[in-house]
Design the sequence.
């Protein structure tokens, strides 16, 4: 028997990967995963990149893409420049780099409850000691022993679709600066806005050490695997070295292609169309939920992002429902995958993605869920 | 001050990244880095990929690319199939995954001396305790306390360009199986063969747990960041989960493009041309070395790969030469970057890449090195 590292004991089968696999079965109605609507990139032109990009490139990423992103980040209020933008092979990679940067076995990590499951997986793997974040008073639980880092998704959180208030954002920024806690803000959904809300990045008001990251998986296309981060000057050089050690640099052709798409004169119009289409899908989904699960569960219509967070009435067993739904060709994600710590109050929750399935197929899937719940 | 992980203390500035950056200065004659000859992909057609690859894909990689690679790996004698091929975002990623799989702080890792510097960097970062490998008798230093893993590059080693004998390959395979040591074979240069030698993968004769990885950076193009690994059945599921946690999956367009290139009817002819061109460059480089550094240093003409390993005569200070050469626009890699442990006998060594510069530019750079050495 090979001897494996301690952290392998913490390695659980990834629910994300399993769901991506199951959701690719042709007849499955999938509310699992976070697949963007394929229509959102069906009209993308993929230009042929210049041939000199076939050679090795810089670990930081392509200079002109970094400069473009620095401008966008500055417009959000973030104090950065092109020299502090790092191109990632998808924003999942940023989670891996941040964990390597800050987490030893037993390091305290403040997280939301619920939180993004694939981030919990990485942090757990590096041995993080999860501390649940109190958004109204982050410092409450930190006295004498603040965590080394806080990992948050304040804008259209995955899985809840919620959006932090300005007061909550300010409280976290202040708490992190005062207690020397690294503020790690993951912001892949910010452009998918369905209703007005405060979207100012918490990192725009950070006073200490911080990492902010974004993704092109929702606004361009996930198959390109392209994301980016920026960070405070004390952290950036380490993150760059960790990136180099992880995969030298990100695919240069994808970087070039995304920059052409971002610079395209029709970009703003295209994004408005994509956002409108997601809002429409959200509203159709909400109507189907009302019709099929009304009285069986509670939820709020999300102000952005790709998910509904649904709490079933007491007495409905989610795991059993998950199994029976799968047998009927309907897939969703049980809420306990998103828990950093056991939480009885989260029993009976599920995350439903509204972007991947068509409204008609979604209605069909929700009808099946409603039937199964009623059958008990 | 943010509190960072223990492993950040082990994080050194990456010589690879620094050299890639310096080597991209336009007038530099670079013998550093491992840049393939840009001519080797100047004629590559980059086809436009199908649009459905813009969606998320499987963590394992694209099914048809995996099947193609399984066939190539089986032809090398490796016991695998398509289900045990994992597509990587460059083979550097495989080193990160293997370190996560096996290395805790203090875990024993057998390595060659010298060894690939960016692998040493990753393993050091995860806290490996390096044990120098004795190729003729690997078990000699293992009694009672075998390492958890052996990391080797038997075919056209980076930096030496050497190639292990069949006896050495057999000895390592047997030793790893007998002592439950994971055999990790890194094989990015195997196709760049300049003279006949035994290239049978050590993993083809592995009896225990093993990982074998390859790269398309040298045989297709590095800017695509594409590599692959296969592993014994006990290890593969963990490596797949680690890949998912690292970046979900590799860029799908790059996977598709490389498969088209591998399947192209002109592929074998193209590879023969590329290999012939590297052999020609190697021979021109050897002739320039004879002319410019003859009597000042010793070296062997490499049987494959991209590097000459040069030992300067006693009394020449490599670090001083490196500084003075850089000032004259010539870049090389001092040999001590490739050492897992201090080694007085490695003093005065340097690695010279022969593939990036044209033969004329290389001759010019070597003439400058010769002048500087003679000036003392």
Sequence:
């Amino acid at each position: 028997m090979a001897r494996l590292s301690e952290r392998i004991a913490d390695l659980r089968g990834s629910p994300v990967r399993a769901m991506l696999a199951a959701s690719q079965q042709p007849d499955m109605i999938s509310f699992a995963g976070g697949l963007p609507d394929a229509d959102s990139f069906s009209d993308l032109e993929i230009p042929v990149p210049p041939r000199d990009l076939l050679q090795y490139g810089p670990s930081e990423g392509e200079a002109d893409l970094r400069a473009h992103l620095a401008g966008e980040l500055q417009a959000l209020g973030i104090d950065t420049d092109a020299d502090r933008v790092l191109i990632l092979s998808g924003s999942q990679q940023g989670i891996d780099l941040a964990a390597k940067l800050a987490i030893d076995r037993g390091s305290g990590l403040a997280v939301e409850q619920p939180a993004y499951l694939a981030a919990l997986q990485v942090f757990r793997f590096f041995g993080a000691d999860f501390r649940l974040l109190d958004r109204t008073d982050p410092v409450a639980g930190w006295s004498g022993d603040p965590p080394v880092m806080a990992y948050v998704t304040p804008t259209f959180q995955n899985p809840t679709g919620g959006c932090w208030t300005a007061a909550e954002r300010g409280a976290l920024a202040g708490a992190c600066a005062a207690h020397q806690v690294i503020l790690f803000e993951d912001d892949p959904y910010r452009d998918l806005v369905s209703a007005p809300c405060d979207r100012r990045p918490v990192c725009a008001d950070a006073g200490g050490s911080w990492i902010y990251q974004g993704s092109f998986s929702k606004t361009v296309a996930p198959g390109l695997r392209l994301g980016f981060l920026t960070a405070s000057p004390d952290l950036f050089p380490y993150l760059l070295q960790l990136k180099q050690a992880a995969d030298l640099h990100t695919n240069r052709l994808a970087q070039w292609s995304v920059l052409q798409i971002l610079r395209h004169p029709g970009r703003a119009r295209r994004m408005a169309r994509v956002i409108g289409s997601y809002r429409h899908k959200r509203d159709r989904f909400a109507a189907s939920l009302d019709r099929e699960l009304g009285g069986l569960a509670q939820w709020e219509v999300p102000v952005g992002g790709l998910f509904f967070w649904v709490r079933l009435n007491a007495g409905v067993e989610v795991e059993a429902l998950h199994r029976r739904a799968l047998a009927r060709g309907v897939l969703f994600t049980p809420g306990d995958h998103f828990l950093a710590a056991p939480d009885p109050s989260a029993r009976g929750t599920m995350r439903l993605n509204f972007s991947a399935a068509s409204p008609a197929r979604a209605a069909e899937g929700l009808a099946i869920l409603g039937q199964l719940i009623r059958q008990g």
Remarks:
- Chain A has one domain: 1-376.
- The mean pLDDT of chain A is 93.
- The longest helix of chain A spans residues 267-293.
